[in-house]
């Protein structure tokens, strides 16, 4: 091949064919560092196809004017464009938005965002006992209309700030207590308080947080005793039988004069409440408050169907008509049946007499719950102090 032919060969890129093939290669490097990717995929594509159109910066978007009086919780940001969000009324336009929390017609306070239901947002949330007691149960008793009392009349100039009293009682930290007050969750003497500057007298004020009564009297004692079989439900026994005081020797409040709420016969085991709060003891045993008591009953099996419905409908006893509130079969083994019954009657030996009346004498009887307080895994013969959350539920169950 001649020298001219070799120069025009496509292999060495020279000549006419090489010149045409070389143009895209030169444009590739003239496209503004397209191979480096400084402009992204669009710059690469423009350089690869030899585009020499200048780059135009995008126009800035115009921000809409927002009225600060009608702005939502995120002021200064555009309103959402969805149909659901745009249909919402601003908070300032809602009825009752300008009324103080707790007053008639005012908006209900929203729950705390970020950590709903955490220990810090609940009253006595850091305690071990009382976490799963459920909602506050109050007695269904009719009361007259309650008049509104100005918060200024609840203020005691010589008292202690409300949030400090709550924090001292173990409700939560002082900062969280202030949030509870601002959210309308605190009542003083039956009236909702939302002002942080209110002072109260801890000796006379009745304070509720989320419906839970705060017991401010440190001299009050509330205990749970898991009574074993063979122990008499008295503090002293003239016959020398084991009694409650024998188990109080190692308790912290052994020198305190305590009342036992209700009674359990010698053969019955389970929960007994001990307290020096006479008003609470009277209400827990009074039939008008209908405090439920839960028992586990063991009888001989098999247990025929229809007996449970008969116990719920009622049985005629020697001292009147009696029934159970609920009946549930827990377990069944050859020759034995375990049953759970709930009733609010406080008559003597009522559970044993009910099962005797339907032809199934009780083999073993254990009371596992009184009102909102249960035994749980508490060992037999032991005594423990109730937590403040448990005390609050117990007081609320009888209207205290």
Percent of residues in helices comes to 10-25%
Shape: globular
Q: What is the second-level CATH architecture of one domain? A: 2-Layer Sandwich
Number of strands: 17
What would the keywords be for this entry?
Structural Genomics Hypothetical 15.5 Kd Protein In mrcA-pckA Intergenic Region, Chain A, 11 helices, 4-stranded antiparallel β-sheet, 9-stranded mixed β-sheet, Alpha-Beta Plaits, single chain, globular, Pseudouridine synthase, alpha+beta, 400 residues, disordered N terminus
Can you walk me through this structure?
Its EC number is 5.4.99.-. Belongs to the pseudouridine synthase RsuA family. Residues 160-219 form the RNA-binding S4 domain. With 400 residues, the chain is of the alpha+beta class. Among the domains are: 160-213, Structural Genomics Hypothetical 15.5 Kd Protein In mrcA-pckA Intergenic Region, Chain A (Roll), CATH 3.10.290.10; 219-291 and 371-399, Pseudouridine synthase I, catalytic domain, N-terminal subdomain (Alpha-Beta Plaits), CATH 3.30.70.580; 292-370, 2-Layer Sandwich (Pseudouridine synthase), CATH 3.30.2350. It is built from eleven helices and 17 strands. It has helices at residues 3-7, 15-30, 40-48, 83-86, 151-154, 162-168, 174-182, 278-285, 307-313, 350-357, 388-397; strands spanning 160-161, 186-188, 191-193, 199-200, 207-209, 212-214, 222-227, 259-261, 269-275, 293-300, 315-317, 320-322, 326-333, 336-343, 364-370, 373-374, 383-385. Strands 7, 8, 9, 10, 13, 14, 15, 16 and 17 form a nine-stranded mixed beta sheet that branches. It has a four-stranded antiparallel beta sheet with strand order 3-2-5-6. A two-stranded antiparallel ribbon has the order 1-4. The model is unreliable at 1-51, 65-86, 111-120 and 141-147 (pLDDT under 50).
